[in-house]
Write a structure and sequence with these properties.
10 helices, single chain, Rossmann fold, ten-stranded mixed sheet, two-stranded antiparallel sheet, alpha/beta, 2 domains, 12 strands
Length: 288
């Protein structure tokens, strides 16, 4: 990561947790931090704008949010170059557009407003589905989100599609002095069919192990001396395997398997599951 890191803030506790995570991340990578607040955030979260809205009050609140975020950053460290801005736009669209200029975009798991608990169905998910850069959704308890467990987990499926996510995980592990664990889930569908003799699972397990080995081979070769890069194959659903890995990881990295749908660009169900339920921050890395 050499481009600036962008963090979206709205003044809520989850966004402040995201800000703290972004400050530490920018410091570790030695990159500038760009704090962004979209002044339409609360409208996006369920507040209906009225014709009597006081725009000067909205601007004053927005200015206060970013000023407070800058002050919080400088209290946390003096080692990062920080800039801030207020944009009068939809927050998801603004962050997705700005992502083309960023090494990554950091957002909280939810924000303020009447629909705060559903933010992951709006801003965070929308940014993750459309951003050109990796998007990190800061999840987990306050202590958990700060890291220190010494592991970066990355989900791998197809080795070629997983390449970007694995490289991102390797880089994150290097700055944390952590190990990389590549997780792949496999299943034997025939075993789940009624009235069918249970087949041997040796072939399925062997193929899974080969896939993981191929996915991490390049990462292991590029890893610095003494760094641990290992694979983990798990029988079962991918979402379960990744959520289990997140419980003991500082960061969970997944590839962005985006697809076009009738409501626009979407993420796959596994990404939805980890973004909603992971016990640690989740990085969604575009395949291309």
């Amino acid at each position: 990561m050499d481009k600036p890191l962008i963090v979206g803030v709205d003044g809520s506790d989850p966004s402040l947790a995201a800000l703290d995570w972004a400050v530490d991340e920018a410091t570790a990578h030695g990159v500038p931090l760009r704090i962004v607040h979209a002044s339409r955030w609360e409208w996006y979260e369920g507040h209906e704008p009225s014709f009597g809205i006081n725009r000067s009050s909205v601007q004053a609140l927005s200015d206060h949010i970013v000023a407070s975020a800058v002050e919080r950053t400088l209290r946390r460290t003096s080692m990062v170059k920080v800039t801030s801005e207020v944009v009068s736009e939809d927050p998801a669209a603004a962050l997705a557009q700005l992502s083309a200029e960023a090494g990554g975009v950091v957002v909280g798991r939810r924000g303020r407003g009447e629909l705060a608990e559903l933010l992951l169905g709006s801003v965070s998910l929308s940014v993750a589905a459309h951003a050109a850069s990796p998007v990190i959704v800061v999840r987990g308890s306050e202590g958990k989100a700060t890291g220190g467990l010494g592991t970066v987990a990355v989900g791998v499926d197809d080795p070629e599609e997983a390449a970007h996510a694995v490289r991102f995980a390797l880089h994150e592990a290097q700055v944390r002095d952590a190990a990389v664990i590549a997780v792949h889930a496999w299943r034997c569908p025939a075993r789940e069919m009624p009235d069918v003799p249970a087949p041997t699972d040796d072939d399925h397990r062997r193929r899974a192990e080969q896939l993981v080995e191929e996915a991490v081979r390049g990462a292991a070769a590029a890893a610095r001396s003494g760094m641990t890069v290992r694979g983990r194959t798990v029988e079962g659903h991918a979402r379960t395997a990744l959520l289990d890995a997140a419980r003991t990881a500082d960061l969970l990295v997944v590839g962005a398997r985006r697809r076009k749908g009738h409501v626009g660009m979407q993420l796959g169900p596994v990404n939805h599951a980890v973004l909603h339920h992971a016990a640690c921050p989740v990085a969604v890395v575009p395949h291309v």
